[in-house]
Amino acid sequence: MQTFKTKAFARFAGREGLEDAALCEAVRRAGEGLIDADLGGGVIKQRIARQGGGRSGGFRMIVLFRRGALAFFGYLEHELTTYRLLADEYLSLDAAGIEAARATGAIIEVRCDDQAIQE
Fold it and tell me: What does pTM read for this prediction?
């Protein structure tokens, strides 16, 4: 499963000390059907533990999610309608679209342990 974070989310994660391993764990749980809230249209909400704490007191993150294929972490600044539109855009990207977004810095790939490095 390819996992990405938007540029705005990457800045937020850096400020909060939110590591990629925590994002990978959230995507792994979602892939197993353990979704905290399904908001429809490819948009889910997942809890991510803060360092030294549990998920219940952690971050509530919006994830644009297609099981077994793609996950994009977005910064919590948009309304649900906007996230559903973003989900339509991001989750319909083909390999060339993903590479173009990556090349411009719009998205940053998150490397999870089970992911083969693609060069």
Answer: 0.73
